[in-house]
């Protein structure tokens, strides 16, 4: 082996095994004087009897031959060390790039959290991220971990500051066991309130839990003993410095607990690349979100709040904790509204959550004008902006989309620290501007709006004017085909309508009916019966409530031609209807008193993929009920048979 190394064409032609042999042989030879002497004598013998003469006619000396062998071994070791050092440098560079990407991602999450805290509802300034309100919680559900037959339980309560807090307690799966089904989350109580970014007491840990010298005897279960160690310095063998510089928090932890709950932590502490360090910096994670992660790993509890749920989803993805990530997604789905749909769409694309993305698109399609006018729209990323502007199924005016795009551009100029001039706005929009279908506006909208905003070039403005007025239309970079939008559907709850003299009259009283659905839909308006005594004008007040709270109302007018046809009246914006809850539809009409009315009413009607259930309303004072009366139709957006 040594002679082979001495007479080879160089270490670059050796395999991995030669590197290893060279390394160990060199160290062993240099550490044994007797071996060095034998090597010297051996090379002298070979040089004298078998080595021959060199081309110059003189044989190399024994010392020269021996040094040649050692030099080749040393070259093998140096080359091997160089390769390892290069690989280590490359790995460190990749890790630095990943941390920079994570920091950019967290900056966007912080902007979104700030925006969420600023978006409030009229009732007590609570967050718009909350689901539809339900009665205040009256019960505290106690845990059942000591009772047989209970595999999981849910703790539902209200945290300090008024925030609704979801605690989902579930057993940890054994290694190799199949993953448990998705955790069903229920949010009760008033709309979620911001805690101002402070860490919830529920995730601070209890420093007094282990003050008793015999504290172990006071904890009857493994879960209780584990929970006592959460955010506790006792026996902690690792600490995390979490947060951005200036707002960091030192959080103690225990490697064993973390490694059993996350493959990433296992690799960090016990894997082949484990580092011997007592403190790890985590600059791309919010302290409150990191504590939520640890709370789950130590206690099997999931505690989510509106202003930290996105940061918690990020940390769950970062450390590959799928159960926590799934709970975050479910929470976001229940909190989804038109005001936060675009923000959540942007995040769901980054987090690669296709189901959440689909839910966001459902809301954006049906409530596009509300979504793009929301304050959070300006915080979405460029890719999401382009996706929204290119969407074929948006129910939105192009003028509204153009204004929203320019609002986003102004915010982007601020982020880039440049002046938001019309030219700079156009520059930051780039090709996204060409996704707005300006030629499909009305001539009046274009002349009084888009043409005067300063973002179109003079030639573009002239060409679009010619597009409106000339027979020979110029070629434009902007799409000229209107968006298809969503197709509305109608639920008819009566099998027939009738008229009998003096039997049904509009007398300024309320006609009302309650309904529920099994799929999420968006109600646009109602179909109403008109005059049965010739043509008549009507003034109508329509209203939609849930649990006594008015979700939408509108005062409008319609003309009845005296036929039995229904006449459609609409709300200003579609209203999101959640499944398995009853809503109250009401109408008060003033006009021709005698009207048509419905009969042979059905308590259950299926339209497309949506099943409606109807029941009588106590608010109905004009005779409308399930079997007959007014409000014969509900107009809505929702899934149809054609959708898969």
UniProtKB/TrEMBL annotation:
A biological process (GO) annotation for this entry? neurogenesis
Bias kind Low complexity: ranges:
139-175
Q: Which Gene3D superfamilies match?
A: 1.25.40.420, PHR domain, Potassium Channel Kv1.1, Chain A
The BTB domain covers 236-306
Q: Where in the cell is it found?
A: Cytoplasm
- Give the domain of life: Eukaryota
Q: Which UniProt keywords apply?
A: Cytoplasm
Q: What is this protein called?
A: BTB domain-containing protein
UniProt biased composition (Acidic residues): 85-101
- Ranges annotated as biased composition (Polar residues): 201-212
Question: What organism is listed for this UniProt entry?
Answer: Acanthoscelides obtectus (Bean weevil)
Region Disordered: start and end of each range? 83-107, 122-212
Any Gene Ontology CC annotation:
cytosol
Q: Name one Pfam family in it.
A: BTB
**Residue ranges that the Swiss-Prot or TrEMBL entry lists as coiled coil:** none
- The keyword Cytoplasm is annotated on this UniProt entry: yes
Q: Which InterPro entries match?
A: BACK, BTB/POZ_dom, Btbd6a-like_BACK, PHR, PHR_sf, SKP1/BTB/POZ_sf
**UniProt KW Cytoplasm keyword:** yes
Q: Which CDD domains match?
A: BACK_BTBD3_like (cd18488), BTB_POZ_BTBD3_6 (cd18282)
Annotated SUPFAM superfamilies:
POZ domain
């Amino acid at each position: 082996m040594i002679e082979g190394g001495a007479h080879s064409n160089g270490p670059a032609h050796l395999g991995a095994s030669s590197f290893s042999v060279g390394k160990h042989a060199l160290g062993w030879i240099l550490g044994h004087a007797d071996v060095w002497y034998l090597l010297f004598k051996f090379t002298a013998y070979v040089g004298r009897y078998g080595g021959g003469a060199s081309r110059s006619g003189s044989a190399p000396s024994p010392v020269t031959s021996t040094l040649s062998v050692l030099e080749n071994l040393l070259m093998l070791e140096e080359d091997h060390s160089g390769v390892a050092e290069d690989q280590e440098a490359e790995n460190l560079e990749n890790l630095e790039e990943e941390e920079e990407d994570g920091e950019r991602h967290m900056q966007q999450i912080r902007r979104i959290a700030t925006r969420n805290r600023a978006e409030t509802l009229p009732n007590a300034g609570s967050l718009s991220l909350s689901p539809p309100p339900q009665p205040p919680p009256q019960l505290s559900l106690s845990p059942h971990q000591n009772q047989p037959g209970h595999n999981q339980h849910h703790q539902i309560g209200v945290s300090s500051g008024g925030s609704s807090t979801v605690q989902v307690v579930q057993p940890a799966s054994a290694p190799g066991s199949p993953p448990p089904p998705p955790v069903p989350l229920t949010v009760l109580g008033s709309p979620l309130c911001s805690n101002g970014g402070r860490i919830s007491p529920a995730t601070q840990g209890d420093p007094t839990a282990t003050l008793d010298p015999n504290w172990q005897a006071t904890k009857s279960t493994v879960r209780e003993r584990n929970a006592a160690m959460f955010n506790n310095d006792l026996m902690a063998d690792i600490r995390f410095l979490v947060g951005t510089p200036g707002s960091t928090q030192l959080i103690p932890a225990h490697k064993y607990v973390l490694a059993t709950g996350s493959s990433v932590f296992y690799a960090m502490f016990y894997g082949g690349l484990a580092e011997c360090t007592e403190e790890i910096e985590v600059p791309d994670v919010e302290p409150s979100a990191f504590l939520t992660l640890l709370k789950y790993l130590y206690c099997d509890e999931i505690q989510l709040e509106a202003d930290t749920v996105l940061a918690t989803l990020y940390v769950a993805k970062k450390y590959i904790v799928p159960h926590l990530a799934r709970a975050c997604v479910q929470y976001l789905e229940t909190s989804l509204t038109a005001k936060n749909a675009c923000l959540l769409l942007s995040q769901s694309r980054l987090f690669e959550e296709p189901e959440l993305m689909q839910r966001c698109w459902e809301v954006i399609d049906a409530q596009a004008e509300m979504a793009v006018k929301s304050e959070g729209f300006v915080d979405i990323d460029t890719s999401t902006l382009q996706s929204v502007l290119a969407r074929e199924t948006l129910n939105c005016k192009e003028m509204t989309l153009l204004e929203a795009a320019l609002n986003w551009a102004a915010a982007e100029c601020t982020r880039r620290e440049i002046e938001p001039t019309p030219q700079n706005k156009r520059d930051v929009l780039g090709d996204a501007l060409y996704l707005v279908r300006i030629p499909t506006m009305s001539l009046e909208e274009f002349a009084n709006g888009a043409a005067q905003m300063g973002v179109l070039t003079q030639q573009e403005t002239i060409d679009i004017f010619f597009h409106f007025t000339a027979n020979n239309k110029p070629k434009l970079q902007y799409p000229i085909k209107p968006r298809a939008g969503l197709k509305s559907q109608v639920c008819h709850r009566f099998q027939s309508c009738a008229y009998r003299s003096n039997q049904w009259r509009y007398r300024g009283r309320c006609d009302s009916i309650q309904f529920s659905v099994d799929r999420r839909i968006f109600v646009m308006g109602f179909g109403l019966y008109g005059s049965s005594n010739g043509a008549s004008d009507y003034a109508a007040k329509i209203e939609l409530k849930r649990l006594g709270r008015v979700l939408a109302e509108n005062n409008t007018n319609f003309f009845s031609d005296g036929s039995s046809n229904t006449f459609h009246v609409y709300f200003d914006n579609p209203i999101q209807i959640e499944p398995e809850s009853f809503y109250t539809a009401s109408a008060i009409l003033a006009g021709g008193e005698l009207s048509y009315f419905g009969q042979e009413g059905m308590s259950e009607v299926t339209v497309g993929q949506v099943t409606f259930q109807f029941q009588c309303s106590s608010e109905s004072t004009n005779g409308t009920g399930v079997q007959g009366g007014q409000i014969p139709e509900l107009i809505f957006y929702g899934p149809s048979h054609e959708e898969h």
